[in-house]
Design goal:
Elements: H1 2-21, E1 25-26, H2 57-62, H3 65-72, E2 80-84, H4 90-99, E3 104-109, H5 112-124, E4 131-135, E5 148-154, H6 163-170, E6 174-185, H7 196-205, E7 208-215, E8 220-227
Parallel strand pairs: 1-4, 2-3, 2-5, 3-4, 5-6
Antiparallel strand pairs: 6-8, 7-8
Length: 245
């Protein structure tokens, strides 16, 4: 009887990893980074996460949103890109088709239900081999070191409860020459947007410098950054105040 129990236990253990992966996403590709408590809180309001979708995809495609953004960012075959705060995957699937089999997309989100739905979408669109879904945290995207050529944050920065931690823990995932691109609306953070001056200030506080800025449709913008000299430690970060923006 004991022998049968051991065999059954081993069988269960062999099945568990496959079952855990059936949802299609990873708990994290990198060890936990610097904990959230090490960073100062933002000196502004944080919008709540209310949906995994920003506008319907048909209207966004009719406006040429994704095509223009990928052209401006020079997204091409072979790049490894993170869609941070991927939500329903509007950019995830379009990025995956653009980078092709030589590249890869890491679709990160903090909401497990969003990742479950996105996993099903990626499978249905035949992109499972080109996309890895990652369960991140508000202060840490949990992306592997030196895995990215580009990190794209679309209409989600204002919802990040610990932006300084997120930006700090994102830096190790960036390869030399990698960029961080943010799309957001010209609104206050409580109204689901980020004023460009505030965005520049908060990224500069963690050691990023802006290299490009583009106006998009309907009062939205695309801001591009790259790592530069940053604070020596999380405790040296100084939160941006309204007077600084």
């Amino acid at each position: 009887m004991r022998k049968i129990f051991v065999v059954l236990s081993l069988l269960l253990l062999s099945v568990m990893p496959a079952a855990a992966g059936a949802a299609g996403w990873q708990e994290g590709l990198a060890p936990p980074g610097v904990p959230a408590a090490a960073f100062p809180a933002p000196s502004r309001k944080v919008a709540g996460i209310v949906t995994d979708t920003w506008r319907d995809e048909q209207s966004r495609d009719q406006a040429g949103e994704a095509e223009r953004v990928m052209r401006l960012l020079d997204v091409k075959p072979g790049l490894d890109v993170a869609d941070v705060g991927a939500g329903s995957g509007y950019y995830t699937v379009r990025l995956a088709r653009r980078v092709g089999p030589q590249g890869h997309v890491f679709a990160e989100d903090v909401v497990p239900d969003y990742l479950d739905r996105l996993a099903r979408r990626v499978d249905a669109e035949g992109l499972a081999g080109s996309v890895t879904l990652v369960h991140g945290e508000p202060h840490d995207p949990r992306l592997a070191p030196r895995s990215l050529d580009l990190a794209l944050l679309v209409h989600m920065y204002h919802e990040v409860t610990q932006p300084y931690g997120l930006l700090w823990n994102l830096r190790p995932a960036l390869r030399p020459g990698a960029r961080v691109a943010v799309i957001d609306a010209r609104k206050e953070t409580a109204s689901h947007g980020t004023p460009p001056e505030l965005l520049r200030c908060e990224l500069a506080a963690v050691g990023y410098r802006q290299t490009a800025f583009y106006e998009l449709q309907e009062s939205t913008y695309l801001a591009v950054f790259e790592p530069a000299a940053g604070p020596a430690s999380p405790t040296a970060i100084r939160p941006c105040s309204a007077s600084q923006t």
